[in-house]
Amino acid sequence: MTELDTAGADTLADLAELLRTLRRRHARTSRDSELTYRELAAKTGWSLTAVAEYFTGKTLPPTDRFDALVVLLGATPAELGALATARDRVAELRRTDRAPAPNSVPRQLPASVRRFTGRATELAALAELLDEPVTPGAVRVAAISGAAGIGKTTLAVQWAHQMAHRFPDGQLYVNLRGFDAGATVSPPAAIRSFLDALHVNQAPESPDAQAALYRSLLADRRMLILLDNARDTAQVRPLLPGAPGCLVLVTSRNQLKGLVATDGAEPITLDVLSADEARELLARAVGAERAAAAPGAVDELVAHCARLPLALAIVAARAAVNPRVPLPDLVRELDESRLSAFAGDDPATDLRAVFSWSYHALEAEAARAFGLLGLAPGPDIDLSAAASLVGRPLQQTRVLLHGLESASLIQQWAPGRYRMHDLIRLYAKDQAADPAALQRLTDFYVHTAFGAERLLQPLLPPIPLDPPADGCTPKVITDQAGALAWFAAEHRNLQAAQCLAADRDVWRLAWTLTTFLYRQGRFHDALAVWRAGEAAAAKLDDPMIRTGTHQLLGAIYGELGRHEEALRHLNIAAGAGDTPGQAYTHHALGWLWSLRGDHQRALRHAAESLRRYRALGMPAGEARELTVMGWYRALSGDFERARCDGEAALATARRHALAEDEALSTSVLGFIAFNTGFHVAARSHLERADTLLYNVGNLYYQATVLDYLGRTHEALDDPAEASCCWRKALALYREQHRAAEADDLERRMADTRVTAPRG
After folding, report:
1. What is the torsional sign of CA 510, 513, 515, 517?
2. Which residues contact 328 (CB under 8 A, 6 or more apart)?
3. Superkingdom of the source (predicted)?
């Protein structure tokens, strides 16, 4: 298809000839006859006379109609811009009967930055908007929003310069100062400045008349208007022309949802740069050779800046003006000074000042909530936790969070979950003014985790809790699936809360996290929370707490293969007296001795644990001990008695609706069937166990079950199913850092010519 040549189109006749050429080409491409004026009128809804006059050169089509017409006739994206330029050139020559003087066209864009980096996706989105057809009387609007220092103005100016040739009638710019230290620019003042740029020397006195004149002047022009740093939609809307040939770029820290909803603005929300883009920006600023000499320091600088463009620019400038200062020294300065390291004599490049303009624009309740959210210790926070942190009802908190999100001070990265940029969090923390807030949040996590952990039917007895602080409303979770989902979303926040909690709450958080971390096979995480719990327990004069600490540390060390440390802790726990918690001590000792290969000693501890759990009336403990007794007997080769224990465990689990124990006992029966040659029965048991373990979130034993299920499929001469199970098992082994089991499985897969997945 031959591209149109629009270079010589200066008259109405030239423009009409271009339309007729497009119509002929359209007919050839569609292998049909040329569209008649009547057919074109029917497709566009215009009058037959108007269509005829456009094609015969008697009337210049308005901008929106011309754009719609060439799109209808199949103009390519490249041709759309050229045709629009040709149409505007004809319109201008008809107005002046001569080419426009260069100094009569406003070119108000600020300079773009030298080292613009990244934002390819956003630039492409803006380019797509430019080529979209618009309805008559409408105008293309892009609303670029994001946090302070995220690079909104930089992006807008960069793109505007790239596309300036598409707007031959000029580019208008105004800084509306919506978030500056001084007064904002009112819409009438902005319009007056635009009229000055358009060479209107005697404007009407009335602001409404000036606005009308502004719109009239832009009605038949192709101009770009950049409204920078807008406060809100009300400041922007009076500045929108009703000209389809124009495009308006708006930048704001607010999301301008009203502009999107009512005026059809295209929202473009900016996030931080990618790690590669951030490194590139720094390397270009400090010099490639200097960056290459200290790649680790560059990565640390990127981390300190949390990939915020303004922070990166400040650090890059400091490095550039001090070329003799090694980059690692700059890293140390950021380590020591944090937010103060981003200060300067120019408020526009002082992070505290830049953030303060957003903070001071908030209403009192929102400002209070913003400061308190800076105290939240984890990577994010959900709505319920935030309500307790700020000490407000759920619905009021939801409104506050929506306001902070609209102001680009927090980000709702998943439904009901919010996070804050690291540097904004540092600023927010300095504004916090409620000493009880952290206790409310800690109580929320402790009480909600306690209720969720009880739903997981742990082997551990419940622990005493104090009433939650005033203003704290723990979340009520009603089923095991909800408990698992909550722990999966919150366990990092619970671990982070340990760092700020009082000693007793540090220990409680460790206790309530244990069952979930066990099921997930996260034993390194479990060790970390219990080391913190151990340090807290040492400061508390509470024998029950110290005994529980030794129990759990012993069990965790055992799972991690550190058997001597495990035995030391468990022996201390066992010597603490005849308490209800000793049932778990014997359970953990039995498991440890089994791991060490002494299955008979393991059986004796399991039998004692079973006796104690029955005395306590804990069905979960009874089912678990019957299960492990079946496991220990099977490992000893006593498969008949092992089967009896496994079936008794399964019956107990089903009688009391203990889903996890049903899964574990079923898996033991599968292991017994496999080792006694009943492979079809083994497959049935293990497939059932795999499903149940997945449903209860026990990824640790699911990996083992999948491994044995693969062996079973191999024994049944089904290599494809064996391979599928082994691949899943190997992935779980690797995720859980079970190196010995992963290596063993990889060797077996190699022996059977099954390729391991890449780690």
Report:
1. negative
2. 294, 296, 297
3. Bacteria
> How would you list the strands of the sheet with 247-252, edge to edge?
171-175, 224-230, 247-252, 140-145, 266-269
- 500-676: CATH homologous superfamily? Tetratricopeptide repeat domain (1.25.40.10)
Average pLDDT over residues 168-184: 90
Residues found in the chain: 759
By the 8 A CB rule, do 130 and 166 touch? yes
pLDDT of residue 268 exceeding 80, the answer is: yes
Structure tokens at 291: 């960056």
pLDDT of residue 99: 40
Question: Residue 675 has which token pair?
Answer: 């080792």
Q: What is the DSSP string of 54-78?
A: HHHTSSPPPHHHHHHHHHHTT--HH
- Per-residue pLDDT tens over the stretch 284-336: 888 888 999 899 999 999 999 999 999 999 998 888 888 888 899 999 988 88
**Three-state DSSP state, 142:** strand
What topology does CATH give the domain 362-434? Arc Repressor Mutant, subunit A (1.10.10)
Position of tokens 């269509």?
A: 51
The proportion of the chain whose per-residue pLDDT surpasses 70, expressed as a percent, equals 98
3-state secondary structure 211-223: HHHHHHHHCCCCC
CATH for 120-269, among 3.20.20.10, 3.90.1170.50, 3.40.50.300, 1.10.287.630? 3.40.50.300
d(CA 504, CA 537): 7
Give dist(CA 365, CA 257) in Å, integer. Answer: 21
The residues pairing with 646 across neighbouring beta strands, listed in sequence order, are: none
Contacts 24+ apart (CB under 8 A), 13-16: 13/57, 14/86, 14/90, 15/57, 15/60, 15/86, 15/87, 15/90, 16/54, 16/55, 16/56, 16/57
Lowest mean pLDDT among 111-115, 466-470, 557-561: 111-115
> Letter for the amino acid at 29?
T
Dist. CA 237–CA 221, nearest whole Å: 19
Confidence of residue 412 (pLDDT cuts 50, 70, 90): very high
Residue 250, φ and ψ in degrees, nearest 5: -120, 130
d(CA 59, CA 326) in angstroms, rounded, equals 68
Rg (CA), the chain: 35
pLDDT of residue 621: 93
Q: Tell me: the pLDDT tens digits for 585-620?
A: 999 999 999 999 999 999 999 999 999 999 999 999
Cβ neighbours of residue 88 closer than 8 Å, sequence gap 6 or more: 63, 168, 169, 221, 222, 245
- Residue 172, classed as helix, strand or coil, is strand
**Where do the structural domains in the chain lie, given as residue ranges?**
12-99, 120-269, 275-352, 362-434, 500-676, 690-751
Residues in CB range of 15: below 8 A, 6 or more apart: 9, 57, 60, 86, 87, 90
Please say if the pLDDT value at position 758 is more than 80. Answer: no
Per-residue pLDDT band for 561 (boundaries 50, 70, 90) equals very high
Report the pLDDT value the prediction gives residue 504, as an integer from 0 to 100.
95
What's the CA gap between 406 and 256, in Å, rounded? Answer: 8
